[in-house]
Amino acid sequence: MAPVEVRRTVPTPLGAVWDTLTDFGAYGTWIPLTSMRTDAPPVRLGWGFGGFTGIGPVGFLDSMLVVRWRPPADGSARFSVRKTGRVLAGWADVRLAATDSGGTEVVWREEIVPRPETVGRLAAPAADRVTARLFAGALDRMLEAAATRTTTS
After folding, report:
1. Helices 14-21 and 124-146 meet at what angle, rounded to 10?
2. Residue 6 three-state SS
3. CA angle, 71 as apex, 69 and 74 as ends, to 5°?
4. How confident is the model at residue 1 (pLDDT cuts 50, 70, 90)?
5. Which of these, 64, 60, 29, 28, lies nearest to 43 by C-alpha position?
6. Which of 31, 85, 113, 138 could form a disulfide with 63 if both were Cys (CB 3.0 to 4.6 A apart)?
7. Higher per-residue confidence, 113 vs 151
């Protein structure tokens, strides 16, 4: 599987975008059929969270660990997570940069591989297209929410 990359530039300030994209407990708001479980705050390296996707008790937990955490400083920010669940392997890397006009450029790269990985990689062409659509839609909804958020960073 190749990593999927979604890029967006929005007029929203970096702090508000960061606060929204790192509100992992709220991801269920933007990802269909998903409810979130998180470690106790604050978010930090090694902090864990997961999204349970399904209907009722039927579904799976996509668990993740924060492996990079660089809050906004000098006009940029970045976080990365590694998928640790029994169903999905992979990672996500999210980079934010302030634009000259006061907005934010977002680059979200993600690779999702169903386990076992050797079998999951066989489904890569179809899975990559679905992943790209799902993450583009979720990111667009997150950025819409960020536009109305008061920044705390």
Report:
1. 130
2. strand
3. 130
4. low
5. 64
6. 85
7. 113
Q: From the DSSP assignment, how many helices (H) and strands (E) are in the chain?
A: 4, 7
Cβ count near 31 (within 10 Å): 19
* Amino acid making up residue 66: V
* pLDDT digit string, tens, across residues 18-67: 999 999 999 999 998 999 999 999 999 999 999 999 999 899 999 999 99
What's the token pair of residue 114? Answer: 């169903």
DSSP characters for 67-112?
EEEEEEETTEEEEEEEEE-SSEEEEEEEEEEE-TTS-EEEEEEEEE
Q: Please work out, in degrees rounded to the nearest 5, the angle formed at the alpha carbon of residue 37 by the alpha carbons of 63 and 151.
A: 105
Six-digit token string for 49: 């969270």
Task: Please tell me the pTM assigned to this model.
Answer: 0.90
Tokens of 152: 């705390």
Element (H, E) at 149: none
Q: Which amino acid is located at 68 in the chain?
A: R
